[in-house]
Write a structure and sequence with these properties.
The protein is built from 17 helices and 14 strands. The chain is α/β, with parallel strands linked by helices.
Length: 539
C-alpha cells in the first residue's frame, strides 16, 4: 500500500483542533479549510467507481496531505458506500471524516452509523433551495423545504456537533429565501454553511457578490464557517471558489484532478497552488503539503482509470514542459522566465538515480521514495519483481515507467479475476487468435477465441471465461514514454445496466496491457453490480 512521504506542511496548524477553534481560525484568521470530496462527488463521474480498499488508499493519502475534511461517501446510497465511509472513519485520525445525507431521517441516521468510529466526524446534510429544484425535483413548496432544513440539521446535531448544511443549487436560489434558510440552519446547529454552484452556472464576480450578500444579510453567519462547492460546467469552478474566498468564504470543497459529475469540480491542486503562487492577491493559508500533490493525482488517476490531460494545470504531463525554442532559451537563463512554480513544489523531482536491470532493491526503494511512494515490505517485493521483469524488456527505465508500474500494481490488488497467461497469434496470413488463462475466485479457467483483430480475440476470450453483457464504449492506448519499447497504458471502459467502470493497465506488450485493463474494469463491474444508486445526489 502506498502512502505519501512524511513532511511538514508549509503552515503549522493543530490537526486536532476543536470545532470552535477551527471556526475561530477560519473566521478571524486567513486560513482556508480544504474539504476534499474526491471520494463522494468525484466518484459520481461515469466510470469512476472505487472499491472500499481503493477509497481507503485515497483517504490515507488525503489525510497525510493535510486535507482538513474528507467527504468519504454517501452512506445511504449503497452498502458499498456505507462500508467505505465506516472503514475510513476507523482509519483516519487527523482529518475530519464526513458523510453526506439528504434532509431525511433515514439518510442522517445511516450517515451517523457509518461515521460512529471516527475520532472527528461531520454529517453533511442538504436540500435544494432554488425555485426550479423545489418545483420540479422536490415538488415541495418553500415552507416545507424550510421546515426540512431545520429538522434535518437538528437531527444531525443529535450525533455530532460538527454539522454542515448545503443549499443545493444555491447560486440559482432566490436570495431572501436563501438567507432565511441559512439563518435557520445555523440556529438549528449547523457549524458550516455550504453554498454550491451545483450546475456550474455562476460567473466569478456574481458568485462573490452572493457570498458578500450572505455575509451582510444573515445575522448569525459569524457563528458558522461559510463554504463553497463549485462545479466546472463553464470552466469557472476554480475562479468562482477563489473569488468566493476573497468575499469571505473560508472553506473550499474540491477534488483531486478536478474529477466529478459532468465537467467536474474545482481542482484541489489548482486551488492550493493558486493561493501559494499568488499570495500577494490571495493572502490565505492552508494545511496542504503541496509536494504530495502529484502523488495524490497519480493515485486517483490510476484507481479511477481517468487519465490526466497533458495540458492540465499543475499535474498535467506538459505543465512543466517547454518545447518552444524561445521558452527553452529563457529557461536555461532563468527558470522564472517561463515557470511560476517549481516542479518540486508539487512533487515532481528530477531523476538523480538511473535504474536498470542491474539495480538493486535498495536503489529501487530509494527511487520510489523520491517519487513519493512508500510501500510495505510485501508490496515493495512485488513491485521490485515487476521492475526487474520490466528492466529485462526495456533499455532505459524512466520515472514515468516506475510510476506506471506501481500505480498498475495498486489497481490490481484484491481482484476476483486475475490474468495468468496470454498467448496471441496474428498476422496477414492468419485469423487473430487468443489463448487465455484467467484465475477467477481462485480457480483457473481457460478459453481460446478468434476475433477481427488481436484485441477483439482477447476480449472475446475474457467474455467466454467470465460471461457478461457489458458494452465497450472506450478503448484507449497511450505510451508512457517515447521509443518502441515504451510501456503502453491502456484504458478500458465497460458499461452494463447503466453502470460504468474504467480499468487501466500498463505493459510493454500492448496486448497484455489491453487484457489486464479489461480485467481491471471487469473486476470493478463485478463489485459494482451489487451497488445501487441513491434516489438523488447532491452537487
Amino acid at each position: 500500500m502506498s502512502t505519501p512521504s512524511s513532511e511538514t506542511a508549509e503552515t503549522t496548524v493543530n490537526p486536532v483542533q476543536t470545532l470552535a477553534e477551527q471556526a475561530v481560525a477560519a473566521a478571524s484568521g486567513e486560513r482556508v479549510v480544504i474539504f476534499d470530496t474526491t471520494l463522494r462527488d468525484g466518484e459520481q463521474s461515469p466510470g469512476c467507481s472505487m472499491t472500499v480498499e481503493e477509497k481507503l488508499k485515497v483517504a490515507e493519502v488525503l489525510e497525510a496531505m493535510g486535507v482538513d475534511v474528507i467527504e468519504a461517501g454517501f452512506p445511504i446510497a449503497s452498502e458499498g458506500d456505507f462500508q467505505a465511509v465506516q472503514a475510513i472513519a476507523k482509519k483516519v485520525k487527523n482529518s475530519v471524516v464526513c458523510g453526506l445525507a439528504r434532509a431525511s431521517a433515514g439518510d442522517i441516521d445511516r450517515a451517523a452509523e457509518a461515521l460512529a468510529p471516527a475520532e472527528r466526524r461531520r454529517i453533511h446534510t442538504f436540500i435544494s433551495t432554488s425555485p426550479l429544484h423545489m418545483k420540479f425535483k422536490l415538488q415541495l413548496d418553500p415552507e416545507e423545504v424550510h421546515r426540512r432544513v431545520i429538522e434535518s440539521v437538528k437531527r444531525a446535531r443529535r450525533y455530532t456537533d460538527d454539522v454542515e448544511w448545503s443549499c443545493e443549487d444555491g447560486s440559482r436560489s432566490e436570495r431572501d429565501f436563501l438567507f432565511r434558510c441559512i439563518e435557520s440552519a445555523i440556529d438549528a446547529g449547523a457549524t458550516t454553511i455550504n453554498i454550491p454552484d451545483t450546475v456550474g452556472y455562476a460567473y466569478p464576480e456574481e458568485f462573490a457578490d452572493l457570498i458578500r450578500a450572505i455575509k451582510n444579510n444573515v445575522p448569525n453567519i459569524d457563528k458558522a464557517i461559510l463554504s463553497v462547492h463549485c462545479h466546472n460546467d463553464l470552466g469557472l469552478a476554480v475562479a468562482n471558489s477563489l473569488l468566493a474566498v476573497k468575499a469571505g468564504a473560508r472553506q473550499i470543497e474540491c477534488t483531486i484532478n478536478g474529477i466529478g459529475e459532468r465537467a467536474g469540480n474545482a481542482a484541489l491542486e489548482e486551488i492550493v497552488m493558486a493561493i501559494r503562487t499568488r499570495h500577494d492577491l490571495l493572502p490565505y493559508t492552508n494545511r496542504i503539503v503541496t509536494r504530495d500533490i502529484m502523488k495524490a493525482s497519480r493515485l486517483v488517476s490510476a484507481i479511477t482509470g481517468f487519465n490526466v490531460q497533458p495540458n492540465k494545470a499543475i499535474v498535467g504531463a506538459n505543465a512543466f514542459a517547454h518545447e518552444s525554442g524561445i521558452h527553452q532559451d529563457g529557461m536555461l537563463k532563468h527558470s522564472g522566465t517561463y515557470e511560476i512554480m517549481r516542479p518540486e513544489d508539487v512533487g515532481l523531482v528530477k531523476s538523480t538515480l538511473v535504474l536498470g536491470k542491474h539495480s538493486g532493491r535498495h536503489a529501487f526503494k530509494k527511487k520510489l521514495e523520491e517519487l513519493g511512494y512508500r510501500l510495505g515490505e510485501n508490496a515493495l517485493e512485488d513491485a521490485f519483481v515487476r521492475f526487474k521483469q520490466l528492466a529485462d524488456r526495456k533499455k532505459e527505465i524512466f520515472d514515468e515507467d516506475i510510476v506506471a508500474l506501481v500505480d498498475d500494481q495498486i489497481q490490481s490488488e484484491d481482484q476476483r479475476v486475475r490474468l495468468v497467461s496470454l498467448r496471441v497469434e496474428c498476422g496477414t496470413e492468419i485469423k487473430p487468435q487468443a489463448d487465455l488463462v484467467l484465475e477467477v475466485d481462485g480457480e483457473q479457467r481457460s478459453a481460446r477465441s478468434i476475433g477481427d483483430g488481436p484485441v477483439d480475440a482477447i476480449f472475446k476470450a475474457i467474455r467466454a471465461i467470465v460471461p457478461h453483457q457489458a458494452s465497450l464504449p472506450l478503448f484507449q492506448i497511450n505510451a508512457v514514454t517515447e521509443g518502441t519499447d515504451a510501456q503502453a497504458v491502456v484504458t478500458v471502459r465497460l458499461e452494463e445496466g447503466g453502470k460504468s467502470v474504467n480499468g487501466q493497465a500498463a505493459d510493454t506488450d500492448t496486448m497484455v496491457a489491453s487484457c489486464r485493463a479489461y480485467v481491471a474494469a471487469l473486476n470493478k463491474l463485478l463489485t459494482k453490480r451489487a451497488r445501487t444508486a441513491p434516489a438523488a445526489l447532491s452537487a
